[in-house]
Amino acid sequence: QVQLVESGGGLVQAGGSLRLSCAASGRTFSRYGMGWFRQAPGNEREFVAAIGGITRYADSVKGRFTISRDNAKNTVYLQMNSLKPEDTAVYYCAAATYYRGTNYSEYNYWGQGTQVTVSS
Questions:
Q1: 78 within 8 A of 69, measured Cβ to Cβ
Q2: pLDDT, tens digit only, all 120 positions of the chain
Q3: Are 75 and 21 a contacting pair, CB within 8 Å?
Q4: Which of 3, 32, 83, 93 supports an S-S bond with 111, CB 3.0-4.6 Å?
Q5: Are 112 and 7 in contact (CB under 8 A)?
Q6: What is the C-alpha to C-alpha distance for residues 83 and 99, in angstroms, rounded to an integer?
Q7: The pLDDT value given to residue 107
Q8: What is the DSSP letter of 31?
């Protein structure tokens, strides 16, 4: 069982930056594939970035967002630069026991989400 707690969301102006953190419980954090997803009101949850051997990014964030992990701290990060109003959403951290991809239904554990709001 893995528990995930996100932090770092907030309100930022367009062009600004935020860094999200996701702290995980458990002793086998390094074995999990980790991902970030987001969901805006009225929209489906969408893939943002994943890390687990290789890193993957949605085309909409490539070059602006960076996912990283610190296994010693059981934490995964999402550095978000050059933020746009369309990045506004609730951002969720997720962990997958065996999966290393972009499909949210394949992830086993989820955090409660953190709100990111980008003003124009």
A1: no
A2: 899 999 999 999 999 999 999 999 987 898 999 999 999 999 999 999 999 988 999 999 999 999 999 999 999 999 999 999 999 999 999 999 988 889 999 999 999 999 999 999
A3: yes
A4: 93
A5: no
A6: 28
A7: 95
A8: G
Q: How far apart are CA 50 and CA 57, in angstroms?
A: 7
Q: Is 105 helix (H, G, I), strand (E, B) or coil?
A: helix
- Kindly give, in sequence order, each residue whose CB lies less than 8 Å from that of residue 16, ignoring residues fewer than 6 positions away: 83, 118
Amino acid identity of 78?
Answer: L
12: helix, coil or strand? strand
Which whole-number Å values give the CA distances from 29 to 9, 17, 18, 54, in the listed order?
A: 22, 27, 24, 16
The per-residue pLDDT for 119 is: 97
Question: Residue 36 has which token pair?
Answer: 């970030």
Are the C-beta atoms of 36 and 77 separated by less than 8 Å? no
- Angle at 24 (CA atoms; ends 56, 29), nearest 5 degrees: 70
